[in-house]
């Protein structure tokens, strides 16, 4: 896409990335890509808000020049130093070596560590303003959402919030960057998956940031990833508030690992029992086949969670260990959690589950159900009882 006019002198000069397979080296984005959004305010003084990943720097600079022509860039505003937004700084400086780089006191040490840039720096604090001519920008610090230097920029004149990673999502917009031109339902899961994996660990800080921004009038939201919210910014605001408050919907996620099918049989028995107990939404995931980002996304959405895995050399199935690690990081607040394990000659999975329960203070519905080998009739009865307790707990 070419540069896109958002409002008056404000333009989108971002890029879509379909080359990167794993976002942050972990989260799959090869199917739908991701956008790196950056913006230009072409006022008496020219301000650029954020750069893009360096692999797309040429395209980004070409778009900037299509807007400002031969004018010089006065300011580069760096809301966030993560390299998907900052690694184009070196290329931009080569084009505009005299521009002032605007950030906060925590921005510049990271910038120097990454890119050895320590000149033409303009430090701003919480609430500071910067006049470009017609447009006046105000800066709000949002530390640990999700890096320590994170901040957002607000255009007081046109009531536009440049929100950094807040309100972002996976999935590159196709054809149009605006919310009103896209199927919002198609962006719900990519938004939740992005939030759960990237922001989930700092949900408390995210909620503080949202409350902090609650006092300003916002007509347009311009995040660093995903759609530009021009027609219905309340949609993404409401979604982020709900996710940050860890509000959940009725439903159960069953995430399991299985080496030879025994734990899978137990998981399937649980799914059948949950449905017979009237649970409308039951999601069944094999952790060896589904990337954990998709599992975590649904865990963030639904109130009930079952985790099941076989023992593996006195420990737990490694793919489940990976999921437990991430869930320990983001917690499972406001969830009801149940556990089932499988073993042949010795346990092990139960030790890991117990450590997870102790670490996260998980709200468990019962003791860990351990099954030896293929579930028999007595085991199925226990699984049905476990499903009944879950159905009662989430309703």
TrEMBL record:
Superkingdom, taxonomy of origin: Bacteria
SMART domains registered for this protein in UniProt: Lactamase_B
PROSITE patterns registered for this protein in UniProt: FLAVODOXIN_LIKE
Domain (Flavodoxin-like): residue spans on this chain: 252-391
Family, per entry: In the N-terminal section; belongs to the zinc metallo-hydrolase group 3 family.
Name recorded for this polypeptide: MBL fold metallo-hydrolase
Source species: Acetobacterium fimetarium
Lineage: Bacteria, Bacillati, Bacillota, Clostridia, Eubacteriales
